[in-house]
Amino acid sequence: QRQVSGQHSSRSRALQASGGSAGGGRSGHRSPSLSDREDMLLDSSNSGGAGGGGDFSHDSAALVKDRRRELHTQAEQKRRDAIKQGYDKLYELVGAAPSASAAGGAAAAGGGSGETNAKSLSKASILQRSIRHMEHLAKQKELQERELDKLHKEVMALKIMKMNYEHFVSSAGASGGAAAASSPQSQPLPEQVKFSVFQSVMDQLFAGFDRSTSAGSFAELSGCVITWLEEQCRPQTVHELSVQALQQVLTQYSQQQQGRQAPGNRL
Fold first, then answer.
1. What is the pTM of this model?
2. What keywords are assigned to this protein (predicted)?
């Protein structure tokens, strides 16, 4: 007991001396932190091996060690659970998609073994699939952006064509209405007249096509056809050919009608 009391008194004097030198003459003392208290308990357990006080200090040190080990284990388990949860979510996003067909075929053949094999993928495999999936998405995005730009250009071209056709129809309707008003004796025409107009337009187009194309080879024919379409099938050119065909057919039809009515007028 004298030895233990002497050790405690020497420890208290050492603490007072260190507190006085660190405090610079101040009266207040710093309360020991949790780690300091744990260190003190460990020191007391190592030095106080005799009597009931030594057993109590040893038990306290063991509790501190167990608590430290428990906290470290809990933190490590939380970290591992978070990593595992992240890999599980990543597998749900990219793991099942590439191997869906293979897993389905294996399940049909081996009774669901494909799903087990898919679930047993390593972390490196999941990360590799994630990289490939991101590269695939980047390529798809680039292709879709190009397609979207192409569609925007087509929409603009179609809008311009729509405006031109609306203008053409409105002007043609106005001229047709004026012509109908100026000829009150107009009558419905037979279907043969309509076919004659179409035939006349096609004959003129084929004549230009025959003059402009050559069938020496497929490449030569393709170039000639494209040139013919761009030069002789313009809306203005087709419009002029149609007007000429209408005038020609209507003139012939009028002459035929006059020839049929001539004998009756003579009688």
1. 0.35
2. Coiled coil, DNA-binding, Nucleus, Transcription, Transcription regulation
Question: Which backbone phi and psi does 233 adopt, to 5 degrees?
Answer: -115, 30
- How confident is the model over 154-184, as pLDDT tens digits? 888 888 878 877 877 777 666 555 555 555 4
Quick one: DSSP state of residue 32? Answer: P
What pLDDT is stored for residue 40 in this prediction? 59
How far apart are the two ends of the chain, measured CA to CA in Å?
164
The rounded mean pLDDT for the chain is 72
Locus of tokens 């106005």: 174
Please report how the helices 191-212 and 235-266 are oriented relative to each other, as an axis angle in degrees rounded to 10.
140
User: The tokens of 106 are what?
Assistant: 């294996």
**What token pair was written down for 185?**
């004796």
Annotated domain spans of the chain:
36-121, 125-179, 191-260
Name the strand (E) or helix (H) holding 219. helix 218-232
* b/e 137-163 (16+ beta carbons within 10 angstroms → b): eeeeeeeeeeeeeeeeeeeeeeeeeee
CB 96 within 8 A of CB 117: no
